């Protein structure tokens, strides 16, 4: 008997559509396949593409064993692969179908992505239906380097929130991505990519800027921002 997760995935695409895609995995509300993008200079950058029923697309890069780039948009993955020429990710990002590389524009994988564009859905929410939070940076008070904070979950938002309140925050306070002040700062071109679900180099829009929600505000925090949010939410 099929599990509930398998039934949910079955509603996204038919088995015939997916049967010969390399690296196929199924989750509760998404399917995942092996993908890649080819640079004439550097060769293939390989990753894992997740396709959600909402139309959202996320790629976790596996170009090198130590690559930490995840939840990239296809456009950001294309740029990360350093592919030359025009930026046309629908044609340049490929999957392996029947043993051959096929651009995702020639597969069923963009079905829900294209529907979302037509319907104007997802302008300010992620695939989970929750407000989207782009990556933010805080500068170390010791080495003066900026460090990235990913805000994908309530726990990650709390780490960033508490770091903002810390007047003497420094690199050693970062609980994940164990770094020190000797660790190189991200290059400027990489900092431009903040994880917005609409545009990887977005400078702030309704998709990636949240002014307060249950993910990034905390009832057990006594700062004025959280107190105001908690009081207003109860009103």
Can you summarize this structure?
This protein is of the alpha+beta class and 235 residues long.
**Helical content band:** 10-25%
- Total beta-strand segments: 8
Main sheet specs: 6 strands, antiparallel
Assembly of the depicted chains = single chain
Protein name: SAND domain-containing protein
GO molecular function: DNA binding
Pfam families: SAND_ULT1 (PF23292), zf_ULT1 (PF23293)
Task: Give the topology.
Layout: H1 4-10, H2 15-18, E1 25-26, E2 30-39, E3 43-52, E4 57-61, H3 74-80, H4 89-92, E5 93-97, E6 100-103, H5 111-119, E7 136-139, E8 146-149, H6 154-165, H7 188-191, H8 224-234
How does this model look, in words?
25% of the residues lie in helices and 19% in strands. With 235 residues, the protein is of the alpha+beta class. The strands form 2 sheets. Strands 1, 2, 3, 4, 5 and 6 form a 6-stranded antiparallel beta sheet that branches.
């Amino acid at each position: 008997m099929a599990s509930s997760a398998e039934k949910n995935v079955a509603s996204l695409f038919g088995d015939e559509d997916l049967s010969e895609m390399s690296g196929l995995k199924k989750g509760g509300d998404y399917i995942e396949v092996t993908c890649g993008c080819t640079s004439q200079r550097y060769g293939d950058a390989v990753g894992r593409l997740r396709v959600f029923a909402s139309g959202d697309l996320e790629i976790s890069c596996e170009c090198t064993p130590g690559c930490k780039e995840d939840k990239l948009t296809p456009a950001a993955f294309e740029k990360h692969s350093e592919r030359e020429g025009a930026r046309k990710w629908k044609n340049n990002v490929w999957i392996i179908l029947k043993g051959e590389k096929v651009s995702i524009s020639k597969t069923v994988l963009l079905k829900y992505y294209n529907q979302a564009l037509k319907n104007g859905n997802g302008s300010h929410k992620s695939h989970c239906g929750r407000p989207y939070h782009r990556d933010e940076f805080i500068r170390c008070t010791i080495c003066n380097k900026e460090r990235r904070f990913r805000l994908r979950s309530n726990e990650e938002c709390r780490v960033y929130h508490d770091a903002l309140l810390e007047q003497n925050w420094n690199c050693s306070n970062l609980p994940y991505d164990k770094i020190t002040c000797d660790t190189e700062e991200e290059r400027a071109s990489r900092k431009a990519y903040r994880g917005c679900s609409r545009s990887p180099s977005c400078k702030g829009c309704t998709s990636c800027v949240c002014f307060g929600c249950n993910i990034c505000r905390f009832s057990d925090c006594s700062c004025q921002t959280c107190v105001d949010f908690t009081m207003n939410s109860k009103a």
